[in-house]
Amino acid sequence: MNAISSVGLRNSLRIFETLMVKNASRVEIANELDLTKTTVGEITKNFIDLGFIREKEKTHDSRIGKPQTLLEIVPDAFHVAGIGILRKQVEGCIVDADGKILRRKSKYYKSFDYNSIINSIFEVTDDLIAGNRDKIDAIAFGAPGTLDSKNGIILKPAKFLEFENVPLAKIFSDRYKVNAWIENDADVAAIAEKYYGKGKNLNSFISIHMEEGIGSGIILNGEIHHGEYGYAGEMGHFLVKDNGTFKYLEDLYGADAILERTRMFGIPDFESLKKAEKNKDKKVIEFLQEIGEEVGAVIVSMIHLTGISTIFLGGKATYLGNTFLNSVRSTIKKYLFYDHEVKVELSTLGDAFVVALGASAHGRVKYVEKVLKK
Amino acid sequence: MNAISSVGLRNSLRIFETLMVKNASRVEIANELDLTKTTVGEITKNFIDLGFIREKEKTHDSRIGKPQTLLEIVPDAFHVAGIGILRKQVEGCIVDADGKILRRKSKYYKSFDYNSIINSIFEVTDDLIAGNRDKIDAIAFGAPGTLDSKNGIILKPAKFLEFENVPLAKIFSDRYKVNAWIENDADVAAIAEKYYGKGKNLNSFISIHMEEGIGSGIILNGEIHHGEYGYAGEMGHFLVKDNGTFKYLEDLYGADAILERTRMFGIPDFESLKKAEKNKDKKVIEFLQEIGEEVGAVIVSMIHLTGISTIFLGGKATYLGNTFLNSVRSTIKKYLFYDHEVKVELSTLGDAFVVALGASAHGRVKYVEKVLKK
């Protein structure tokens, strides 16, 4: 095959990504992606030759009137490890080319120095690989930003500074002899939402990932939106006024800041917070309403700026219950400048594993890109 | 010609837009837009057949080694009227296909009822057309949102409610027997910045338009970003805290709110405010610093969310001088979460005419689209 053009590469990846969401016929793909049938035919032939996709049984599409051959991803075409580097633990999984989870593994860091963290990541990766019947073809990471995803370097991760300036991709590609990529944790959480969660058939949405940092991934016309300096969606660094002083949102309502406040009324962790919300503990309810108002106000500004009106709340947000969710919703309803539908829902993908899962989906796309560029 | 495909239409418009910025050879266009030479050849041939573009003298590109034929837009291919509907006046111009301004006209509304406003717009349009040697082929408007640009209806314009639910495009296409389109005022100001101002060779930037409303147009990869409900960039509806209560930014620092404050120290309009800033009037300086901090803090949040780091400040911002600009810049420098270059500059396109100018550029693209779709 000749060197692929950048247009051809982009179209190829869009087709593979479409098949990551669902099996589809060539005609359906052409319609959905606004490509000619010739282009789709050429690209899918190439993918079939590579062994990445194959024809499935025929289906009958009543609009077209004749049976269509569905295309599907070949599960064993390749295997990818997805690793989520969180601030307290590492989460990992291995998936096949079609996204089925083959193995999972996680580990809390023993301490928070660089060596302890990197060794935990090695252990999880070793264990994932050792238990997988086939070798893996790539590793992809989700990690707190800022990071240089082009060169695979974690730069200056907020609230995780022991892991500053780590050339993660190189360390792992050297050790495991496979390609490795990194991406922002909130971005891969949004990618997970797109392939496994509530974002499956949506063109545009914002996925908010509330941990110690509060990030968001912006899916715009089916693609993750990247800024000019390797970050975007940094809602945790929205400026909000606290007693007349500007503070970052995540310094007031990041997971650590929330627990610092709840400890004052005897609640040490998010599981206990979840229980207290269910038991309608008055102080807890008031505090959760406050978080909902402040985070909700930032979401209003985000909706007004982006014009995107589907929002998923993930990470530790899933522990804050309906009190928080309803407070976010009523704040949006109160302040939306123009009356239209806004959908705000909690993610159902879990608070920590979602980063590993999203990283694996990102890795599948990056691996296909790598092969096509060869 | 066969019905154009949506891919073909998009590529055609991208090529025309490139020539709206500068004359370029087919090879340069292909490289810049990442299109094949065949595609560029077919599309430019079609434009030449339509009489929209023509070959200019040959130039020598040292990287390619042989003379390249430059393409340029044929100025008299069509004429478009651009009309800016502001809250106190209407501004208008006629431009040729290559964007040269042939006529200008403006008029303050006598009163603020619907009839007075629409008659002022008719007068300006009549006068523009009467004085133009050729007939015009289209009219495009920039107006305060929200609006339904697809159907040409002004819906619910903030601080301009006498002009609610006005089917502007239909009124003008009926009266003048030409196509008419409308677009958000801040969006067309950004379009003006792209074709006439500091955004000429930039891929992504945010153009802020400070009037009674504070809007912004987001240019993302060369295209204006539209939200799902016909708005985006609504920074005037960012929520900011004022004495513990959420307010919209534009209710605190829109042009009318600014003058309400300055009247308390005897300054009735923006010209006087500009003079007072130059004379270093202490109260004025303090107030301008306050505006710079509050608007600057919102800009910080916008940069963090979009990852876009080139910002132009237009509209009434151009009257607020270096005191305001420096306060915005130092606020950004203070709170940017990750150290990188940010460019913040005042627009040089003027505070009111920019809407008419941007509308005319928008109208040129819409007119070409209309002809291609025929």
From TrEMBL, chains A, B:
It comes from Athalassotoga saccharophila. Gene3D superfamilies: 3.30.420.40, Winged helix-like DNA-binding domain superfamily/Winged helix DNA-binding domain. It comes from the Bacteria. Coiled coil: none annotated. Pfam families: ROK. Keywords: Plasmid. Belongs to the ROK (NagC/XylR) family. SUPFAM superfamilies: Actin-like ATPase domain (SSF53067), Winged helix' DNA-binding domain (SSF46785). InterPro entries: ATPase_NBD (IPR043129), ROK (IPR000600), ROK_cs (IPR049874), WH-like_DNA-bd_sf (IPR036388), WH_DNA-bd_sf (IPR036390). This is N-acetylglucosamine repressor.
